[in-house]
Amino acid sequence: MNKSNNENKGYPVTLKEVVQMVVMSTILSIILVFIITMNFQVVIDFFFPVDPFIPFPYNLCGLLVSVLGFALSIWANYGLLYIGKIGLKAREPFHTPSTLVVEGPYRFSRNPIYLGAIMMILGLAILLSSLTLFIITIALFILFRVWFIRWEEKKLEEAFGQDYLEFKRRVRRWL
Question: Using one digit for the tens of pLDDT, what is the confidence trace for 56-110?
């Protein structure tokens, strides 16, 4: 069930936009992971070397967590683009939403994209047995919770009123 704030603003979603969104999500996710793991991890390991605290083969569970997080992010982006018909321009940060998407992964989580990002980094922290990445995961969780989600929930409440409040009552923030 999709609720639209203004039906005239909805644009048809093309296959090209879907492919672009999937490719962009993939590239941005990989870039984010490499920035976090390479820049911070190399410096921290140089100054504070630590032995792995999650031994092989248990650390391989992190690969599963990362893959599940990546798949969740792709599914959530697909839901916004295809189900919600929210184009790439309208998805830029701090835009007022035009559609309330309550299908796909949004049936289980109000923030599946953020959850997917956190799962990807947490998975890497487990895989690499990196205390630094665990700390970054916690910091990112706090940043999402305090800054981005608070702002988005306010905007959604203003835009969709009772429909969003019902959705908020029915669906948990994370899982």
Answer: 888 899 999 999 999 999 999 888 888 777 766 666 566 777 788 899 999 999 9
Classified by CATH at the fold level, domain 12-170 comes out as: Four Helix Bundle (Hemerythrin (Met), subunit A) (1.20.120)
Q: What's at 146, amino acid-wise?
A: V
Element spanning 19, H or E: helix 15-34
Q: How many CA atoms are closer than 13 Å to the CA of 149, on its beta-carbon side?
A: 18
| CB-based contacts of 145-149 (< 8 A; 24+ apart in sequence) | 148/114, 149/111, 149/114, 149/173
* Farthest CA pair distance, the chain: 58
Look at residue 77 in the predicted model and tell me its pLDDT: 87
- Token pair, residue 96, equals 């007022």
Instruction: Please state the domain extents for the chain.
Output: 12-170
The number of beta carbons lying within 10 Å of the beta carbon of residue 92 is: 8
Average pLDDT over residues 120-127: 92
pTM for the whole structure: 0.71
List the one residue out of 68, 87, 75 whose CA is nearest residue 25.
75
CA distance linking residue 131 with residue 125, whole number of Å: 7
Confidence check: pLDDT of 138 > 80: yes
Beta strands, E only, the chain: 2-4, 99-101
